[in-house]
Amino acid sequence: MANIDLQNTDVAFKNLSTAKLRKAWCLFKAMSYPKLVLVGGVLLEKSLEWGLPVSWILKRSLFQQFCGGEDLSECLKAVNDLGRRGVASALHYAVEASGSDPEFENNTLKTIAIIESRHLMPGGVPHPFCVIKLTGIVATSLLEKVQSHKPLELHEEQDYLRFKRRLRRICESARDFDCSVLIDAEESWIQDEIEKVSIDMMRQFNKQRAVVYTTIQMYRKRRLAFLENCLELAKAQNFYLGVKLVRGAYLEKERERAQQLKMESPICSSKEETDQQFNTGMQRCLQEVDSCALFLGSHNENSVQRFCQLKKKYYTNRNKEGQAVVAQLLGMSDHITFNLAFEGHEVCKYVPFAPVPKLVPFLIRRARENTAVVGESSRELRLIEQELQKRKTNNQLAGSYSRA
What we know:
Helix content: 55-70%
Shape: globular
Strand order of the largest sheet: 1-2-3-4-5-6-7-8
Number of helices: 17
Strand content: 5-15%
Number of strands: 8
Order of helices and strands: HHHHHHEHEHHEHEHEHHEHEHEHH
Largest sheet: 8 strands, parallel, barrel
Radius of gyration: 21 Å
Distance between the termini: 47 Å
Structural class: alpha/beta
C-alpha cells in the first residue's frame, strides 16, 4: 500500500499566518536546546512558587502553542477550527497532582462539563473524547499506598471510595452523552492501580462500545504481555477493551527513581525496543477489531503510516467509525494531523486547557519531550522553515509580477 504524503506543508500550515509560523519556529528552536529547557523549567516552577508574575510569559509561548485556552469556552474556537478541517478533539482539563477534596470535586465537575458540552458546540462540531488524569481526582499518595498494598486508615478508605464514585460519575456522563473517557497513564508506582481501576470501569461501561479507555505506555517493559492479558480478559468477560496506546512521557523521571532506589528500571533499554513494542501492540489492537477500540497517540511518521495500512487491512468492509483513531498533541506534528485528515483518515488532536499556573507541569513536560526526541523537533523546524521559504519565494514572485 502506498504511503500517505505527510510532507505537504501547504495542507499542514494552511490555517497559520506567516507571523504565527515564525513564532512557532522560534519556540521549537528554543526547545531544541536541552540545557535551556531544563533551566527554564526549573526557573518557571520556582517563580510560580515564589509568586512572581510569570504566567504571561507562559501564556504567550508554550501555552499558546500547546493549549486550547484557560477554560472550556476558550476551547470552543479551537475545537470548531479543527472540526472544519476534519479533525476531532480530545478535550482535557489538564490539572494533575491536586491535593484536596474540593479540588478533586471541582476537577470532576470540569470533566463532566466537557462531556456534556459535546452536543452544545457552536457550529455543531462535537468532540468524541474526553481525557482525564486520575491524580486530578484522587491523591497521588493514596494511589501509591493502595498499589503498594499498605493498610489504609479509615479516612483513607473513605477518600478512596469517594474517588471511585467521582470516576463512576464521569463514566456515566460519557455513556449518556455518547462520549469516551481516555484515562491517562501516569508514573509506574501508581500506574498499576490506575490500570486496575480502568479495567473495572470498562467491565461496567464498555458493554455496547468503548466508553472507557486505559492508556498503555509502550516504553515500559513487558507491556505487550499486559496488552495480551487485557485482550483475553475483555473477550472472556464480554466487554470492549478501550486502549490508548502511547510510547510514554515520564522517561527521565522513571529512570532517575529506579537509580535512586537501586531497582530495575521499568523503561525499555532502547528506543528500538520501545518502537517494536509500540508497533506490535498497535497491530494486535487493530487485529482484534471486534473486541478492541484503539486510540493511537503518536508523532512518529513510520508508526502512523503503518497504522493507516493496517487499519485498511483489518477494517475492510466494517462499519467501525471512531473505533481506530490516530492522534497528535495540539501544536505538534500538524503535518501528520492535517495531511491525514486531508486524505480522509480519522484523526484527533489532544486539546488541553486550564488556568495557566495549573498547566505548568504539563507545559514543562511538553517542552522536555520535544527536547528529548531530537529527530522529531528538527523535523518540525525543517517543515516550518520549508513553508516559510516557500511563502517568501511566492511573495517575491508576486511582487515581481506586480511590478511588471
